[in-house]
């Protein structure tokens, strides 16, 4: 932090003042509660309405007292003081930190109701479809108490359901659905086709997941186009390259790069002078790199299988063949070519947006999570958000044990199984957090051999897994879960119905075991938070081995020596601090990657804003016709006999077609530039400056090209009563579209280390 210390301190004290102030307000609200409790529903609702105006909440104590009374009546939950404080902080636009089990769902709904009462539409963003549905249903009575409307959008929602849901005051939805609808809305050619209605506020649950961990995940809208260009020649050229001489694979096995020799060899085989010439950098070089990736890093039967002449991806994180998934555009073709298969009809990326860019579109962003403090810097830097820590309603009785560190992974794994067996023998419920599905399955098998049956959660089926994890606190249970599985579901001691609560409390509550440290303290703490909800007893314990990824990667620049005990355990303070050091290093690396990648993404986000404005003008005004008629008055005169509405729509479709088409090209081009740019770094240009220079130039060209092509099309295409016959002229919009999140893509799956390298190529 250095020079900025004073700044953060100053911010900290502002927050403290804000906290004191909100405590005062909550106290005054308490005093009003007794009076409100004797009033009718209508009177309570009216009291709350009288406490707000378009400008915001004018009488905060009355507002909170009324809302609290409404929650008591509709949900049978009377908000704790800390919850009311949290509501105030959310309404001020902060990210609040509240421990797991402290009741963030209610807090979020109260704040959303508050925003909605001031006339703002709220998107309440959940981590999955199941929680969107659950929370909307659970909180519905509270929102509707005030005559406001609420709905959920999930993956399963139909178009009509979405249209209706987005027009509600409070909309619960997972971020991906909101993003996909946004992307699809950016392909429409008539305003009436819009699905989403604008929202003023994004209130993000598990805010650090969406705003930070997944911030750079792109949401992609793809469409079918004709067959891909032949990649055969390039595959052939690359197939002769030899590792070490022609290309190098980096230490982590994530990236592969051509050496000078390799580049020359490829150039000879392709009969071109230089891959790095302007004419080749955007296309040939990229495809050579893809072919090289396919050859050097993707292994048949490990990363994909070939079945009935088709390449099917093996989903590393889920351990089964992924259906309906493809690699990003060119890579699929490269692998097909490598296997000598016919290159399938290619999808084309029509549009894509990162979660960070999506979230920044909301005028107001606020959020809630159990782990915000560790993310304070990032939340401020990337979103200008402040963090408010909300105290617990009841003090914690959770005990966090010191890490158990082992020399090797094998010794660690043995110790994990022993510890689980030991806890299980007493009946204490155990929740084990693993890093990926393969690890979960291996552990469950090892446990089975000891006669312990574990439930395994893989984030496959959120509803089903919610049901299982709700029981994770019952006597004798062992539940093994990856990071995302079962999130947002309350783990009550003694089972979901708490019948065996007393017994489990006496056993020490839920024991949470982490099989390795995560790359950030935040992720560790998310797991720890599963134990000790609402003042329950609980235990957390992490196992670490010096062979763990975090230690190997983070400790690359330093080392530690210590003597392990007979079982491989190392209990030496120097080793504990070494592990901490490694984790800080990996945390720093992630931060750096985020900051760097955002620099690249930011420019595209700005371009997208310009594009959106242009799109809106074309959709909502007669601009398209006016512009085209101005540049070609003769053609306009020929068409004058047609109804004005037909002319407007025809011109609109012509303009939008080329605008969208060029934007899609632009995205692909900028991806390619991004991929080749670090190669230019070798030529001593600053990559990001170079990228900016190209992006700005290309975007300007895009705009000009879109208009030029539209003018040309306007001159050529048949326009009659039925509108512009664009498809007949070869200007066809994709016949089908589909959406995906790149993290869905096995390429981004965890436990598959080369993957982020490839994912980087595309983002
Ligand atoms: P979080 O999202 O913070 O982990 P949840 O919103 O899932 O927590 O709530 C955890 C549990 O606490 C739920 O079972 C909920 O019913 C309960 N709860 C929350 N607030 C209250 C309250 N004011 N009074 C009683 N129970 C509450
Ligand atoms: Mg929650």
From TrEMBL:
Any Gene Ontology biological process: intracellular protein transmembrane transport
Gene Ontology terms: cellular component: cell envelope Sec protein transport complex; cytosol; plasma membrane
Annotated residues for binding of ATP: 83, 101-105, 490
Residue ranges of every copy of the Helicase C-terminal domain listed in the record: 415-586
Topology relative to the membrane: Peripheral membrane protein
Annotated localization: Cell membrane; Cytoplasm; Membrane
Positions of the SecA family profile domain: 4-575
Stretches assigned to coiled coil: none
UniProt-listed Enzyme Commission number(s): 7.4.2.8
Task performed by this protein: Part of the Sec protein translocase complex. Interacts with the SecYEG preprotein conducting channel. Has a central role in coupling the hydrolysis of ATP to the transfer of proteins into and across the cell membrane, serving as an ATP-driven molecular motor driving the stepwise translocation of polypeptide chains across the membrane.
Official protein name in the record: Protein translocase subunit SecA
